[in-house]
């Protein structure tokens, strides 16, 4: 019954249109002929000067008729199926974390990959189809959806490429260093590395008597109860004594 189905390329199209015909029964009017009799004057005395005459006349009549109608018809292309008003693409495997955007083609949500979008991105990839490489360094975690880096403790910067600024340490560099007396503070643990002459967890104490220098490991060489400087080891003599070289 299809009439003149127009062949539209289905390439990149979800449906082709064609025109089909169908017939309907209608009442149609027409001019129906009939024999009309009328009188006319004539010279025939036997007919009392009135003669019968005939002529073909028409009157409106009705009859059943067939009328051909045309309608547009959409037909889904191969790989598509009718879904309400539209032709929707069909994916043989259902798209688990994504959408079917073309026949057998899943468009994955960020953070998911694989043919049917069922595999989560590994730790070094992110985005739709896990197609972007993570840029994070220094052991940072990469957000599989946005690619944002979550720095491990002691690091900062969008790629976590920077150490915490001096004076701060830990996760997000949120903790304040407690080290004193010009000690160095470890960017991850906050552990203090004392400058020469100091000791204690926060380097808050001088070296014990008789010791000086880095890690208070050097032995003082002062005599006669002279006090040894905790940093340099220099002896300060009690009254009455002098330094001998
Ligand atoms: C998605 O694909 C994986 C591996 O290709 C398969 O094991 C799984 O059954 C699929 N899931 C669906 C819902 O099609």
Sheet with most strands: 3 strands, antiparallel
Q: What's the alpha carbon Rg, rounded to whole Å?
A: 52 Å
The number of domains: 3
Output the helix-strand order.
Answer: EEEEEEEEEEEEEEEEEEEEEEEEE
Uncertain residue segments: 1-9
Q: What percent of residues are in strands?
A: 35-45%
CATH superfamily of the largest domain: Tie2 ligand-binding domain superfamily
CATH topology of the largest domain: Tie2 ligand-binding domain fold
Sequence of strands across the biggest β-sheet: 1-2-3
Provide the structure class.
mainly beta
Roughly what is the average pLDDT, rounded to an integer?
Answer: 88
Distance between the termini: 122 Å
Say how many strands there are: 25
- As a percent range, the share of helical residues equals under 10%
* Global geometry: rod-shaped
Q: What's the total helix number?
A: 0
Bound molecules: 2-acetamido-2-deoxy-beta-D-glucopyranose
């Amino acid at each position: 019954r299809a009439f003149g189905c127009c062949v539209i390329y289905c390439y990149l199209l979800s449906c082709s249109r064609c025109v089909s015909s169908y017939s309907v029964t209608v009442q149609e009017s027409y001019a129906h002929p009939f024999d009309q009799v009328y009188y006319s004057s004539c010279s025939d005395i036997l007919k009392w000067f009135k003669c019968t005459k005939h002529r073909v006349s028409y009157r409106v009549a009705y009859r059943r008729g067939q009328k051909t109608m045309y309608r547009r018809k959409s037909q889904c292309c191969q790989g598509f199926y009718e879904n309400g008003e539209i032709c929707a693409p069909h994916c043989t495997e259902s798209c688990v974390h994504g959408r079917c955007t073309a026949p057998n083609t899943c468009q994955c949500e960020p953070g998911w990959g694989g043919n049917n979008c069922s595999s989560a991105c590994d730790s070094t990839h992110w985005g739709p189809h896990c197609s972007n490489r993570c840029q994070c360094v220094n052991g940072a975690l990469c957000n599989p959806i946005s690619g944002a880096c979550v720095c491990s403790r002691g690091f900062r910067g969008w790629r976590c490429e920077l150490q915490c600024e001096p004076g701060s340490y830990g996760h997000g560099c949120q903790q304040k260093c407690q080290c004193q007396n010009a000690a160095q503070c470890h960017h991850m643990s906050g552990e203090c590395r004392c400058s020469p002459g100091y000791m204690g967890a926060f380097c808050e104490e001088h070296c014990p008597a008789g010791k000086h220098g880095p890690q208070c490991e050097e032995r003082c060489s002062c005599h006669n109860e002279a006090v040894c400087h905790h940093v340099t080891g220099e002896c300060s003599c009690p009254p009455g004594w002098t330094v001998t070289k």
